[in-house]
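Quick question, first post here. What does this chain look like in 3D?
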Amino acid sequence: MTQQQNIKNQEKFALMFNTVLAMENAACKRLEKRINEVSLPEAKQQLQHHLEETKEQQKRLQKLITKYNGKPTTEELGLPLPSYPESLKKEMESSMTEGEKELKKSEEDLLVEKAESTCYNMLIEKSNILNMGTEALPILQQNLQEEQSMINWIESNCPLMVKQLLSK
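> Answer (accepted):
Ran it through. Tokens below.
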């Protein structure tokens, strides 16, 4: 590989990592908001724990981006949240209890975590195929594992959350 091809690959890697960093930046902001909204102590504690993990994920990605001669972004990616038709949205907002609204937010939490997990899986595959080096893979795998852990927590605690929140 020529030096010019190597530089071009580094730029490509930095860009790919920056797209995931932009998602983590948005996720961090969302987690901070969710911590203030959630009423269940266990969920609040888990969201706080995942916020700390997300901040570490950001730091790891920033180091990777810098390693590949990129500049870490501070921008935020739009998160994959449902966009309801206006008529349904109004009806939902007027008819849902506070507990039901909180459950809807938990569903959205799960969607975001699954999207992050998907992005990390894709990035790991790209890293393997493009031989991104030994530094990228463990970082991406650690970030993926933390996202998977949050997914598992939400899914395993869903029955209890539904029971507690629907009784509100």
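The CA atoms of residues 34 and 105 lie 8 Å apart.
The chain is about 80% helix and 0% strand.
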